[in-house]
Amino acid sequence: MREMQRSFIEISRFPDMKLETYNEGYLSIPVAQYEIPYRAMVPKFEACENLIVPVCISASAIAIASIRMEPQYMIMGESAGVAASMAIKSNRAVRQIDV
Fold first, then answer.
1. Domain ranges (residues) in the chain
2. CA-to-CA separations, 97 to 6, 36, 42, 84, in angstroms, rounded
């Protein structure tokens, strides 16, 4: 994406709003914490009964830019491991565990 215009506007720098120079099209802006749903890591049960993939999430270009950061990969990887362990212990598919 190419920056188009430069202006001076109020920008969210979570948790505050600040007046800053803003480059239209620039996406690296801090945001509040958010959750990644477990269902984003597992396919529909009908498609595959027992697959969990933490790094192949289908998301918008904006969301994927945030999700592909190393801390998120580490959290999703740990979550996938815990889910796999829970599935084995309960003798269920990963899609059927109680999140």
1. 1-33, 35-99
2. 49, 17, 11, 9
pLDDT band at 2 (very low <50, low <70, confident <90, very high): low
Residue 1's pLDDT band (boundaries 50, 70, 90)? very low
pLDDT (0 to 100) of residue 20 = 82
Q: Give the pairing of strands 16-23 and 6-13.
A: antiparallel
Alpha-carbon distance values, 92 to 36, 52, 84, 87, 89 (Å) = 22, 13, 9, 5, 8
- Nearest-angstrom CA–CA distance, 89 and 87: 6
Please state, rounded to an integer, the average pLDDT across all residues of the chain: 81
